[in-house]
Description:
This protein is α/β, with parallel strands linked by helices. It contains eight helices and ten strands. The chain is globular, with a radius of gyration of 16 Å.
Amino acid sequence: MKFLLTSGGISNPSISDALVDLLGKPIAECTALFIPTGVHPFPGGAERAWKAVHGHASIPLTQLGWKSLGMLELTALPTIRRENWVPAVREADALLVWGGDVLYLTCWLRQSGLADLLPSLSDTVYVGVSAGSIAVTPYNCDAEFDLGFVPDGSDMAQDADRALGLVDFTLYPHLDHPDMPDTALSSIEKWAAGIPVPTYAIDDDTAITVVDGAVDVISEGHWKLLNGGARS
């Protein structure tokens, strides 16, 4: 796949241009499927999902002027015949994967069968927001936080610190966000010190593209590559 991994969505012209480059045509000519699944575990998750689907959330993603936009709810897919949803995924120009609970999202990416399908989607752009971006990396930087939302008796907590590993680095979004104390650079550096792959700390005006394994940082904000690299 082609990946556009964001912290805060399509938040500035540079990230928007990167999305169009990956799509290979204007957004107005592209079809997309929106995945809101990750936000469901949180208090108010139903309202948050509705706002995101309808483009009422503050993070720019569904409201970009797509030719067509559908919703792909991962928790429903195991109860649906594959021939009724897989073609829609294969035909979409982009998969828009919303934020929320990384552990829950990763679990349903696997259980739905979409995780197994993703590597075969060579022409599709995977656009992640926050948890949607973390989910395709090898490690879940939000594991400790996510464990607080695991239902009693669920085995979802097993391997909570691992994600799908579709890219060979991990990332920590919302760098230095004023409402998220754990996103201070010092906290991220402490977490990254125990991770055996490079970690990108990115703010909400930064995104990472991955095409055929080649990684590029798109930023109008600030970021840092830990275990090498320099801050922009």
